[in-house]
Amino acid sequence: MEQTENPAREHILQRIRKALSAPAEHPSTPTDERLFAPVSEILERFEAECAGNHTECVLTTDSWATAQAVAEVLRSTPAGEVFMQDAPSLRRLAANLADRTIHWSSNGRPSEEVQATVTLAEALVAQTGSIFVSSACGGRAATVAAPVHVVVANRAQLVPDLQTLFAQVSHDDNMLKNSMLCLTTGSSRTGDIEKILVLGAHGPRRLVVVLQEE
Amino acid sequence: MARVALFIPCFVDQLSPQIGLDTAEVLRRAGYEVDFPKAQTCCGQPAFNTGYWNDARPLAARFVRVFRSYEAVVSPSGSCTTMVRNFYPELLAGTSSHGDAVDLGKRVFELSEFLIKVAHRTGLSAEFPHRVAYHDACHALRELGLKQEPRELLRHVQGLHLVEMPYSEDCCGFGGTFATKFHMISAAMGNSKAANAEKVSAEYITSTDPSCLMHIEGILRRRNSPVRTIHISAILATRVGTGVAPSRLSESEGAKRQESDREAIESQELTNAPGGQQ
Amino acid sequence: MTTPAQEFLRSAATKSADLRHRQILRHSIDTYNTSAAQGQARFLDWQAARRRAQAIKWEAVNHLDKYLLQFEVRVKERGGHVFWAENGEQAQKYIVDLAAARNVRTVVKSKSMVAEEIDLTPALEHKGIKVWETDLGEFIVQLRDEPPYHIVTPAIHLSRKEIAALFKEKLGGIDTDDPEKLVAAARVALRRAFFSAEMGISGVNFLVADAGMIALTTNEGNGRLGTSLPRIHVALTGIEKVIPRLEDLAVLWPVLSTAGTGQAVTCYNTLVGGPRTKDEPDGPEEFHVVLLDNGRSELLADAEQRDVLHCIRCGACLNACPVYRSVGGHTYGTTYQGPIGSVLTPHLRGLHEFQHLSYASSLCGGCTEVCPVKIDLHHHLLHNRRNAVKAHQRSWKERIGFRLYRWTMLHPSWLALAGRLGRHAIRVTHALGLGGSALDPLRAWTKDRNPPPIPARSFRSLWKERRGAD
Prior knowledge:
The structure holds 3 protein chains of 3 kinds. Chain A has helices at residues 7-20, 42-53, 63-75, 88-94, 162-170, 173-177; strands spanning 55-60, 82-84, 102-104, 116-120, 123-125, 130-134, 148-154, 158-159, 180-184, 189-190, 198-199, 206-212.
């Protein structure tokens, strides 16, 4: 629906410009105050935050151990579709999952009955125990549609804090080309019933990060 | 001896004169000569808070003139002190009184603020052996930044057991014309405050603000509560050995008490350093 | 027909007297306060964080045209559409027409105050389109056919038993008040909607100008699913939501979460820019951002109150407000409730009709103390009051009353006389047993409180005498 003309646009912009001709007092506050303590032990901090937000964090030493860890998680999920991001490393990993039907992201989005998704991540953030994903990680639905989401990552992807994450992302043209980016922190949840925390709302109930050494 | 001017809120003048008398007594005991500039009337807050700034402005300008020559102006009310210090500059912006208003703001104090920050007095030989909860009046707390000062004074009152009630920083619900315009909400807030004091078995609720206390007292009496209110000046004006503020005595007793106080203070002056640090 | 002011008083009277309602709200807000304190402790200095958030929003709002234009350029580069709407009708029409043109039969909607503001859902339903509220709290109040009670926690006023009964009646197949099972029931009910809806409508927490992306802050994942699965995504927002840079989110995401729920960050902080790219396996084919003015540019012109547009809709001021705690969200009768609503609504919907909201406050300042972007909320209530008086929108009785007050207070002798007469009148009417009647000068006071004891003499009179005794 192309709007060739949207006169409202000009009206609004004119009103804004006229409004701003009257200056408002600037708060004149220091802009260099440090807001958070620096994160020194990055891995330890990431693990501690994950424990707090119900992200399961599994450390592995090599790709074989990673594959085992993923298989372990999937064994505990009900029989049904496993949706995976179509990436070379995950293709190799899938060789260990002969007993599950894998739906690859190159064939479209997960189905309504998907039981688990396995994706990579763009980065991990220690400050908040978060994973940072994009639509390149198997699409948009891949990282939210299933009750279980497994993230395969490596330690080099850990950044200390949000400030560092954004400093990197802002200068990464390829990252910014994605139509979706998401900072995911813990399993989906709600406090809408009497402010009681319930885990597992519409997004995954279980978020597992398999974090490989190298 | 240093002099201070009493800034007596209009409703204290007309409805709770003993608060004014107690305040004068407390300041005298702290070593100050107390003046009451009788030209004062009202700081203008009722009009200001209801949006009638054109009616409040001449009162503010007048107020600034009345108190211009005093080094210190002390008031038994956090909200009235707030009006002068925090709002006069905005109200009088662009008028010839603006500069004087900003200056007056530096010289006007709520009573407990004055005692702690200027007079540096915590002990005033007061005695009030009761369980007392302190209500953090909104203006005193958020506009003047007073939290510990009144509590510090209360802790030095002999026999006084200071208890903290839950949600002591919650607004009591007075809020000026809000109390009558939105009386049902005002009453709900007041009843919450009363219930919180009852929860900690306080005998008294005290505060820096007589308007809060008048509202809370009205609520307490309506619900037949065992709790009563008392302004902080009345507690501080009690005397060790009597537990009664001079203003509550009969006229002749009060006059006699004043005479002996004056003698006591004068003799103190001869022996102590100025300022009388306790 | 009652005015909004009359309706407010009526509802306030009912709710203020409802102790159970106060207990429920108090409990929820206590839970929030504990979490918020924990969240604030994660910062080196929460006050520094507030200052930084304020500075970011100040820059954005005071250069609003520049950043909105930058945002528009970037979104269009990504293949998205930007529609500017002067008022609710224009915004509503755009979205409804779009849905009709695309044969949309089902819409999944995540939380949007702006959608409430423009009555979007009824307009879509009128066209035969089924709208699913997917935020659990919104889903619950939608089933009850009532508006949200709180801008962050829409069902804060309901107990689990009430929600259980509601689900049993409306969803069927569930008979428990276990919160986990209730959430699971909602998940099942909404999952089908997510996978079958043709259009997803979302709100916006921030418009990121330099990246050309919208930022969405949620916990449940409904915003993620609703902006991933349907083939059309419409993001509805006020024009003031813009921020200059992506990097500003390193401050604003934690600040919003801390003030909103006490979390370090919420579960899903999503950035969406445009429809799916050709390399992506899924995602909407169309992306529309609807920028709504609806009175915001007028508020922008008010330099004194421009900072009201800094609001990030965290809800902290509602939780801090003793009036909100007493009367709850529905009493306000407006989209925006609590202190921000009381300041904002007169601007968006008219001072004359809604000034009562700015008067329904004791000016305690609790709101200003907690606002994470340091809006001078309680002082703006005063400014609205002053503006109402200036515009001659108050009753003649009140105007005359304050004129008399001013004359009296300009003359100490008049004050002394008026005081004496007033005290006398009160004592006489009460002595005659007319206390509480129409003749009682203190009637407005004594409805809910006992009157203060009336002294025989004023302070100035007593002081004069004692000084005279010297």
